[in-house]
């Protein structure tokens, strides 16, 4: 081939979480691989996703803890004026959170260069043939298989983009702001909308929030959804189930109306999900077939696009936009790609299995769903509830809103899933995910220790109730 061309076993397009895991898996297996990314380098999680959002949430909890020490009903301006000179401000906490984000991105980029070294090609790519990529710098890459891990991009309503201009933002633009906004309307109350709405509100930003879905954070369990809505309604004004909103520019402000909500805000923060970033790849040239909505047809077990050499991973699939899922899918896609090549050395390559579904909203109290969601349960499933009112640690925390729901199979006596609203729920959710993935029975879980007083004792209480109901069944 020409000097400007190269031949590899597998080409990985996208150097985020999924792409890095795919490339690492390929190299460990002894395959020749390249990792292609046009930048900016750094995973979506580190740049504009889970890490900056958690840094801002942590900053918000620090400021909110101070607010809670002030006399009830005291106006914020009054108690802030009473603070000693030199105290931290919301703006300083915002800047600190962004600095932490920058450090994490820099560390991620260093990790990427150390991983791929000269195999990292920092340029764009598009398919010219089923086995050929044309790169943005004029080079060509011929490969026997491809892992597409190009990530996603935040959605913006096209009808408002021209009208609102820079006042219409996603988290991409939010985390690029030097100054903490003074007022924001959050449009979309899924996980990201809830997290950012809560964080900004606790930092003293005037926040109103709305979403098309009548259920906060798309919580499937009705009891957990009810508890979450009751709690977070006190954090910020919300209007859920609003399909139509009015947002129009009025000078330096935006008039925002949704249902009964009416507010003049500095920004409209759109949190309506992310779409796979696939448009510029010319996937049709790779033989990829599409459905009526223009989405690639792919097999969810192998991650392979039908009748092609292309394997999808991470946000590019559009299904499980979570970092741990992207890491798993990058590994699975690489393993499946190697097996599909037909070489004897990779025919017996083990393929990683999928982990139990696990999603967490870091809203303090956290919202989490593990395993089967309530809407997915079989009719025979047994459901039990434990509440904060019956838990010693929750009473100490003055958190009667805590609720834990467990779902079990009466035949196997194993947990099928769980849903919860709980302070520190991220930890309890992990314990439940491990138990479900190991196929632990109720009796096995009850044989484990539950320290007193902890929130984890809610699990002990729920399991005891579950055992009782299973025996009755």
TrEMBL record:
<feature type="domain" description="Pyridine nucleotide-disulphide oxidoreductase dimerisation">
    <location>
        <begin position="359"/>
        <end position="462"/>
    </location>
</feature>
<dbReference type="Pfam" id="PF07992">
    <property type="entry name" value="Pyr_redox_2"/>
</dbReference>
<dbReference type="InterPro" id="IPR016156">
    <property type="entry name" value="FAD/NAD-linked_Rdtase_dimer_sf"/>
</dbReference>
<dbReference type="InterPro" id="IPR004099">
    <property type="entry name" value="Pyr_nucl-diS_OxRdtase_dimer"/>
</dbReference>
<keyword id="KW-0274">FAD</keyword>
<feature type="domain" description="FAD/NAD(P)-binding">
    <location>
        <begin position="9"/>
        <end position="330"/>
    </location>
</feature>
<dbReference type="GO" id="GO:0050660">
    <property type="term" value="F:flavin adenine dinucleotide binding"/>
</dbReference>
<dbReference type="Pfam" id="PF02852">
    <property type="entry name" value="Pyr_redox_dim"/>
</dbReference>
<protein>
    <submittedName>
        <fullName>Pyridine nucleotide-disulfide oxidoreductase</fullName>
    </submittedName>
</protein>
<dbReference type="GO" id="GO:0003955">
    <property type="term" value="F:NAD(P)H dehydrogenase (quinone) activity"/>
</dbReference>
<keyword id="KW-0285">Flavoprotein</keyword>
<dbReference type="InterPro" id="IPR036188">
    <property type="entry name" value="FAD/NAD-bd_sf"/>
</dbReference>
<dbReference type="InterPro" id="IPR023753">
    <property type="entry name" value="FAD/NAD-binding_dom"/>
</dbReference>
